[in-house]
Amino acid sequence: MEHLVKLLDKNGLVFAFLVVGLIMYGAYVISKRLTKSRIPGAAIAISIGLILAYFGGEKGLASIPAFSGMAFLGGSMMRDFAIVGTAMGASFSEIKKTGLIGLLSLVIGTLIAFFVGGTIGYFMGYTDAKSFATIGAGACTFIVGPVTGSAVGASSDVIAISIAIGVIKSIVVTIITPFVAKRLGIDNPQTAMIFGGLVGSTSGVSAGLAATDVRLVPYGALTATFHTAVGCLLCPSILYFIVNYFL
Amino acid sequence: MKIYGVAILAACFLIGHLIGDSLGRLFHLNGNLGGVGFAMLLLIFVNDYFKRQNILKPETESGILFWSTMYIPVVVAMSATQNVKAALSGGWVALLVGILATGACFALVPLLSKMAKIKK
């Protein structure tokens, strides 16, 4: 047994291909047999991933020996590489059609997340400007939260909460998107771009869209990746100054 | 050869990250500002240019397409390696902010799409 664990650990990435392949296969069988393909296989596969992560530790399933390769396959390098690859399916003319509204959605999405998040935190006892800004920034993405927190000098427990907020956001977006996509009109490249800009969590948006309609992934992911950039720019600067002035 | 496609993808990825990294330094932030987004834009431009010049061979293209189809498996691996336990134990603040702030952003999607249609 110990020998096997060592072998799988040593060939972590290859074992991760096998594990993910099995999860995907299981998910597509469940999708077809139990839901008559009503719930997309990709959505089920991602949910299985999240459930498995719960039984792991800090790095989810990758905290369990032998599964360490999952962290590499699902790490930021591979994720970003594959996301950039999806740009092959995007057409420049579709992106141009969205134009300024796409840019506007980025700024509005950051403002809404920041102030709604910060205000809820305020009423739950985090009343100082630093905590307000960090919790609000966490509501943008789990990268903006810690970047803002360390820039304004927030305490480490508030920074931890801001990361948790961002992770919960990405999980919520992943699960909810396929169910509300139709009602919100997310069925064309333009709306997908607006959606990505407003909501912003790259992992959540791209996983959610993957479960909705794979063709929309590049459009949503494109604006979503800039959401983190806009958040990192605005939250520790202008938005923090505004909050600091009023609190 | 397929590796040509993979190499083009890698070049776009690295140049995009370089731009994002430089922007991060410019604003004195410890991070990459939109590197992935720039990389995607770059690949879209390159793809557009190659197609118009008719010099992109299907074999080369398939090297890039392979990685774009690996996207969902990579996302599955990513969700399996999230710190789900910590996210749930972040308490009520994390849970409430995470859900309500996200809901507020979702609610604005139809409004902004309507604005986009008026502009057309």
- The low-confidence runs of chain B, each spanning 5 or more residues with pLDDT under 50, are none
Largest sheet of chain A: none
Query: Globular, elongated, flat, extended or rod-shaped: what is the shape of chain B?
Result: extended
Structural class by secondary-structure content of chain A: mainly alpha
Task: Determine the oligomeric state from the structure.
Answer: heterodimer
The most extensive contact between chains is: A-B, 114 and 77 residues
Radius of gyration of chain A: 19 Å
Provide a compact summary of the structure.
Chain A is mainly α and 247 residues long. Chain A is 79% helix and 0% strand.
Protein model, in words:
- The complex is a heterodimer of chains A (247) and B (120).
- Chain A has 12 helices and no strands.
- Chain A has helices spanning 2-10, 12-34, 41-55, 69-73, 76-86, 92-123, 129-138, 144-152, 156-184, 189-199, 202-212, 217-246.
- Chain B has helices at residues 2-26, 35-53, 58-69, 71-80, 84-89, 91-107, 109-119.
- The termini of chain B are far apart.
- In chain B, 83% of the residues lie in helices and 0% in strands.
- The interface between A and B is large, with 114 and 77 residues.
What is the secondary structure topology, with strand pairs?
The complex is a heterodimer of chains A (247) and B (120).
Chain A: H1 2-10, H2 12-34, H3 41-55, H4 69-73, H5 76-86, H6 92-123, H7 129-138, H8 144-152, H9 156-184, H10 189-199, H11 202-212, H12 217-246
Chain B: H1 2-26, H2 35-53, H3 58-69, H4 71-80, H5 84-89, H6 91-107, H7 109-119
Helix pairs in contact in B: 1-2, 1-3
